[in-house]
């Protein structure tokens, strides 16, 4: 019997029955050979559906419901869970022992809840690889949420109210590959924020209030490939900030407050750079950027914001005379 036949069997003969193939009211359950997926999307659900959850569940999704709390005893009914998706509910916090006994859980998604605080050690009890806390109300992130030996590869803290980089927590995440910190209120990054993220490949810092970067901000991140810095308030970049990032392929610097870039700031071998939406001031001081733009194809077409006579002109198309350089002979 293939898994589809098994599923049909399960649905036809076991609707509502207890035991291996049971499924809570208002949820759908997909049973296959190796996985059992439960999805509970009912907006009127306000209690955890502990009654008839199949003990074999490997993936549980309760989304866009009125659920306001989940407890460790609730989850004990499904010890084989690998993924727990709880987006769009009304959770305000989680108990510290929530994940105790979930020795297979690698993914927890808490997007779009009302979480303001979490207790110490809250994510210690499961071998998490992916942790999503996007679009909550977090103002503080504590280092002890995760263990020192954490294997986390994906952390999403975007859309919260963080004013400071979660440096203490990040120092524990030496295997992190993707970090989302977009859409917070970050104003500055301590120089060592990302120093332990040796495996980091994608870093999302867009939509914050960053005014500057330390020249060594990314010096520990030799694998950094995609870097998102758009929609911040940076008016300068340290010339060495991208040095040593041999894999850097994509940098988005659009919609900041850059007027000039020092010579050598942009790496020669980079695949794509977005520089649009900055108030570039087109005079002789912009010559390094003008020359860089004219020798790279992987880039946006940034325009002058000033002086008045050049406003709106595409920088790369300016003549050297327009830029105020003495004409070449
Ligand atoms: C279960 O999966 C294994 C390997 O994927 C396959 O060999 C076997 O036939 C499957 N059994 C059923 C009942 O589908
Ligand atoms: C959700 O809960 C709130 C308050 O607990 C209640 O007023 C509301 O009617 C509930 N919504 C649904 C769809 O059950
Ligand atoms: C969890 O939420 C339910 C429904 O709102 C409530 O009856 C119950 O008391 C809550 N339990 C805890 C531990 O907060
Ligand atoms: C949370 O962060 C704010 C500033 O972002 C700080 O003033 C406050 O002391 C922090 N609270 C805790 C418990 O760390
Ligand atoms: C960097 O990326 C390469 C290729 O994906 C990988 O083999 C290597 O282990 C990574 N380095 C670290 C420190 O994760």
UniProtKB/TrEMBL annotation:
Residues 1-22 form the signal peptide. Gene3D superfamilies: Ribonuclease Inhibitor (3.80.10.10). Keywords: Leucine-rich repeat, Repeat, Signal. SUPFAM superfamilies: L domain-like. The keyword Signal applies. The keyword Oxidoreductase does not apply. This is LRRCT domain-containing protein.
